[in-house]
Amino acid sequence: MSVHNFKGLKCPVPVLKAFKIIKEKKTTKEFIFLTDDSSAPKDFKDFCKNTGLKLLQINKKKKYHEIKIGRTNSEK
Questions:
Q1: Which tens digits make up the pLDDT trace of 8-26?
Q2: Beta strand pairing status for 65-70 and 54-60?
Q3: Are residues 32 and 4 in contact, defined by beta-carbon separation less than 8 angstroms?
Q4: Residue 17 class from Cβ within 10 Å (0-12 exposed, 13-18 middle, 19+ buried)?
Q5: CB-CB neighbours of 66 under 10 Å
Q6: Which is nearest to 65 in space by CA: 31, 35, 32?
Q7: Starting from the edge strand earliest in sequence, which strands make up the sheet with 54-60, in order?
Q8: Cα–Cα distance list, 23 to 8, 13, 51, 64 (Å)
Q9: Which residue in 6, 48, 52, 76 could disulfide with 14, CB within 3.0 to 4.6 Å?
């Protein structure tokens, strides 16, 4: 599992950085992204839908979202 802090970054930067990290870490199966961007849950849902990744979980914390994404066999 790989954890990445994107707090303070606004749309579309968290998703763009996540995409780059996922492409670089080819053997990592699950990723957690921390972000305080209010549009991040929707952005990451769309991102997973468009890339074939699996949105495993979105946890709303007090001041940020914890977004967990996993690899699938149908990645694009």
A1: 999 999 999 999 999 999 9
A2: antiparallel
A3: yes
A4: middle
A5: 14
A6: 35
A7: 2-5, 30-35, 65-70, 54-60
A8: 23, 15, 11, 24
A9: 6
- The amino acid present at 28, given as its one-letter code, is T
Contact predicate 25/41, CB 8 Å: no
* Sheet strands (E) in the chain: 2-5, 30-35, 54-60, 65-70
The predicted-structure confidence for 23-42, as pLDDT tens digits, reads as follows: 999 999 999 999 999 999 99
Domains of the chain by residue range: 2-70
Contacts of 60 (CB under 8 A, 6+ apart): none
- Whether pTM > 0.85 for this model: the answer is yes
As a whole number of angstroms, the distance between CA 44 and CA 16 comes to 10
